[in-house]
Amino acid sequence: MRLHLADGVPLLRPEEQVFEAMLDGWRNQQLARNLALSTINGRERKVRAFAAHADAFPWNWSSPLADEWFGDLRAVCGCVRSTLRGYQEAVRLFCDYATDPAYGWAGECERRFGTHPIQVCHEWNTAVHMQECEAEAPKRAFTRDELQAFFDHADDEVSRVRGRGRQGWLPAFRDAMLFKTAYAYGLRRNETRMLDTADFGRNPEGPEFGEYGVCYVRHGKAKKGSPPKRRSVLTVFDWRPRSSTSGSARSGPPCGTRTGPPYGRPNAAGASACDGWTPASPPTATTSAWMRSWTSTRCGGPTSRT
Q1: Which pLDDT belongs to residue 4?
Q2: Residue 116, pLDDT score
Q3: The whole model's pTM is what?
Q4: b/e 38-68 (16+ beta carbons within 10 angstroms → b)
């Protein structure tokens, strides 16, 4: 507390300044725990949202105010269970910090405002994480036919844009490659977005996959206070290496002759449709930079394991 508020110095707006000082101290505590900045910023936004809804500062918070806010989030805003639990966790952690005697905020609030903060989130008014998967029942994985239709649509978009003489065929091809990569290796969105050409290697047990036998994920989902988790995913689809090679070889518009469906994708037989394509322009020095460009775009497709 003394690092943020000097003793004996009057404050122009004591309520607002003390609240901001409490948030700054809580931010430093989370930084000391090596939490991600995105996690810290998200929790701070949730605490500010509760303060705005309650129209009160932390030393005037109460459990009924928290119950009213949580009820509005669920009934009015339609928050799902996991989102509601995230709001509750943020408020609970902030109250834990504000009431901890080691930081001195309770005594400072008592001296300035005649009251002190309390814990407003308890086991009887907060949700408990009971199941590993909290997805809504209607949500399910794509069937094989739906996946085939999705990949067909992504590839048809490439042909449609290129057939109209537009310059947007390259982003469409890049997106199609991202969808296939995410599906082939069961990658999350950020894992797919952060891939690079050097993240593929040989698998001694699968020499038929060549240079694309293993995908080395460097930005896996991290645990609290830990850096991104690394893991390796083996290639299991025989069409994936050929699809990757097809993407690496196209640094410019394809001008070859097509005898089958466009570009690499898994078809019903499990083969790659890019086998029927003969590119007229060979790989150039810009291949590596071009590959980095298509791996740096957010993937909005089925990135979960299916």
Answers
A1: 62
A2: 94
A3: 0.64
A4: eebeebbebbeebbeebeebbbbbeeebbee
